Amino acid sequence: MFRNLVSAILNGYKFFTMRRSMLLCMLASLIGSSYAQNSPGIPVISASAATDSVTIQNPFFNNDLTDLFKTDIAELPIGFIGNKFQRFQIIFTEIKKSDTSSSTYIIKGKNKVKSNVCDFTGTANITNVTFSNPPTVTGYPKAGNIGTLTGTYLFKEDTTQKHVGTLQGNFMIRFYQSTDKKITIDDWTINSDSTYSNNQYIGTWKSYDGKTTQTCNFGTLRIPESGDLDVGRKEFQPNDKYKDNGWQTYGSLLNTDWWKIK
User: Fold this and answer.
1) 83/199 Cα distance (integer angstroms)
2) Is 155 helix (H, G, I), strand (E, B) or coil?
3) Is residue 25 part of a domain?
4) How many angstroms separate the CA atoms of 49 and 30, rounded?
């Protein structure tokens, strides 16, 4: 009788373990699919706190993914800082893969708030990659995979400049991998999908003296977690109530290559 009881318990445990594994696989698949959708309101990205460098063992990370992090001058990221949605501009001027970690990319760039321009350097650390089939919408190829990178970033502004601190948080980048394994940014529907967004960064800016911490989010074509700032239907359009917070010249010819000004 005792042997029968032990056998029943073990069989029940094996069944529970099998069901648990199936549920975890289904959940991972659903998460991958949700990230592959084109939406300005991306899911909250959960990842470990940003650090200068992490090492994640994943064969996919042996690929050079530098191009996926690039900021396109034709479509520079749109961003805000603070609870009054002050306009935040940013550009990555140099990106290279770390020599010591396949999942880490070293990034240099500049950002601008009002008339204050800061140089920064830091890292983006990939913590996860998921794949899903391309959506069945016009514009996507039928073959290949849509991939999503998620991870953390930490950018440190130049301490010799004014109003400086650190930018850190989580990011999401969506890409396309063709059947011949070529990897490119997922911009298949950039001209046809009014809700297209990519390269989404959600985080904070914290002054070096620790006295000020502000929300600071940015992304391509749309800003994640931007409240009532974005009122555009076909493209990003700042709410008139915030126009005096740096948005007066958004989308106009008055915009300059501010990162080139000495």
Assistant:
1) 22
2) strand
3) no
4) 24
In a domain, 161, yes or no: yes
6 assigned to some structural domain: no
As a three-state string, the secondary structure of 199-255 is: EEEEEEEEECCCCCEEEEEEEECCCCCCCCCECCCCCCCECHHHHHHHHCCCCCCCC
Render pLDDT for 25-44 as a digit per residue (tens, 0 to 9).
Answer: 433 333 333 333 333 333 33
Q: What is the mean pLDDT of residues 144-168?
A: 96
Range with the lowest mean pLDDT among 5-19, 57-71, 245-259? 5-19
Domain span holding position 147: 59-260
Report the alpha-carbon distance of residue 78 to residue 83 in Å, rounded: 16
Total domain count, the chain: 1
Using 50, 70 and 90 to split pLDDT, how confident is the model at 141?
A: confident
Is residue 44 domain-resident?
no
